[in-house]
Amino acid sequence: MQTSFPIYHLMPLASEDCWSLLSKHAFGGYNCSNRSKLEVIGKEIVKKCDGLPLAAVALGGLLR
C-alpha cells in the first residue's frame, strides 16, 4: 500500500533575505574596513544565487 504525501512548493528567497544569509556566512558578524566594497560584490553574487539559500550559504562560506 502506497501513501501519498502533500507536495510543498518552495519559493526562492527575496534578495534582501539572500543577502542577509550570504553576509552572515561571509562576514560572520565582523565589521571590516572594506565592507562597502565587499557589499557591492556580494550583492552581485546574490543576483546569481537566484534566491537559493544553499547557494548563498555555500558562497558565503567560501568568501569567509
Automatic annotation (TrEMBL):
Assigned keywords, A-Z: Plant defense
Gene Ontology BP, a term: defense response
InterPro entries according to UniProt: Apaf_helical, P-loop_NTPase
GO MF assignments: ADP binding
Positions in coiled-coil regions: none
Protein name, as recorded: Disease resistance protein
